[in-house]
Amino acid sequence: MNLAERKATERAAAYARRKTAHARHRAAASAQLESYLRGVTGQVIAGYLPIRTEADPLPAMGALSARNRICVPVVEGHGCPLTFRDWRPGCALEEGSFKVMIPVGGAVLVPNVLIVPLVAFDAGLYRLGYGGGFYDRTLERLRATGPVRAIGFAYGDQQTEALPLEPTDQRLDEVVTENGVLPLDP
Ligand SMILES: Nc1nc2c(c(=O)[nH]1)N(C=O)[C@@H](CNc1ccc(C(=O)N[C@@H](CCC(=O)O)C(=O)O)cc1)CN2
Ligand SMILES: Nc1ncnc2c1ncn2[C@@H]1O[C@H](COP(=O)(O)OP(=O)(O)OP(=O)(O)O)[C@@H](O)[C@H]1O
Prior knowledge:
Strand order of the largest sheet: 6-3-2-1-7-10-12-13
InterPro entries: FTHF_cligase, FTHF_cligase-like_sf, NagB/RpiA_transferase-like
Oligomer: single chain
GO biological process, one term: folic acid-containing compound biosynthetic process
Protein name: 5-formyltetrahydrofolate cyclo-ligase
Catalytic activity: (6S)-5-formyl-5,6,7,8-tetrahydrofolate + ATP = (6R)-5,10-methenyltetrahydrofolate + ADP + phosphate
Keywords: ATP-binding, Ligase, Magnesium, Metal-binding, Nucleotide-binding
Bound molecules: the ligand Nc1nc2c(c(=O)[nH]1)N(C=O)[C@@H](CNc1ccc(C(=O)N[C@@H](CCC(=O)O)C(=O)O)cc1)CN2, adenosine-5'-triphosphate
């Protein structure tokens, strides 16, 4: 199996585990993220508007919006990094690429903290998404300009053995699940 096929195999298996976990642990995962980020102030934080069975960051985004700017990703095109639009609880939304909702006419922001959706992650804090390479390109670009904290958000069952890696895969700084945070506190 070549690398793309191995990634596709991992993606399919983790996607099925995510679906089961989402039905059981959705509220616990959302609460864990909210509590972990309580106390963060003055940052530009990228969340996301969840699709399918992604862990739901909306409770955390709502709480953080009192003391931070919050934004969500917009697909500009194939092979392009994501951009991010200003988001507030209850703001008007429209459908963007891949059926993901995006804010109507929100200002473009550059986040320094990102809550990153994923399909699979490993103990080395590498991730697999839907296969567009969007977050890889985005983190590469943001990290070239300054410090960025990329927080994967997932269910514990989305963890897998070491993922097949490519030079373009960007590592996460942390992963939050319903069970806690990786890497474990020293
Ligand atoms: N909630 C959320 N928003 C997000 C992302 C995300 O992963 N989750 N993105 C992160 O990049 C961007 C959207 N990217 C996406 C890329 C692919 C597919 C998708 O459904 N892919 C199909 C294959 C589609 C095709 O080949 O045409 C699939 O997985 O079946 C969805 C979103 C921006 N917003
Ligand atoms: N910075 C980059 N420059 C060029 N190609 C890239 C870059 N990042 C990723 N790619 C390519 O994009 C394709 C998809 O990458 P990958 O399978 O890692 O996506 P993913 O992590 O699942 O998706 P996403 O980041 O959108 O959630 C691969 O062919 C990869 O080589």
